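Format notes (please read before filing issues)

Several people have asked whether sequences and structure tokens are stored in separate files. They are not. Every record keeps both together, in the order shown below: the sequence lines, then the token lines. Line labels are part of the format and must not be stripped during preprocessing.
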Amino acid sequence: MSSAWAVIERQGRVLFTRRSARTSRPGQWCLPGGGIHVGESAAAACVREVHEEVGLQARVIRPLLTEDDQHFFLCEAQDATILLKPNEVQEYAWVIPSRLRELGVIMDFRRLQRVLQATVLPPAGQAPS
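Then the structure lines:
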């Protein structure tokens, strides 16, 4: 299944969500995002999924990586209030990329490392300035 995922950065931290027990891969941490509907663009799916999962109005800034029908976008949140959809997300965290492993089980960790390296964020192992 095709999917779209958002990298939303604030002050050197990236928004991650922990998947609900009612979803596939329950309890795993991932970027906000999910499946692309038939006839929907990857960018539109990314914006829709962010709103559905965490209640933020997002704007796609640019694509970061497309691999194995997974699309990753650098996005900007137009507002600051996070409202979780409990059927999909049980919690969220703003994470310094170099400390990502401290969250717990990360969905598709190796791919996420490549995605985060494609952003304007510091390379893994370096703290943001």
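For reference, the curators noted about this record: The chain has a mean pLDDT of 90. The chain has one domain: 3-115.
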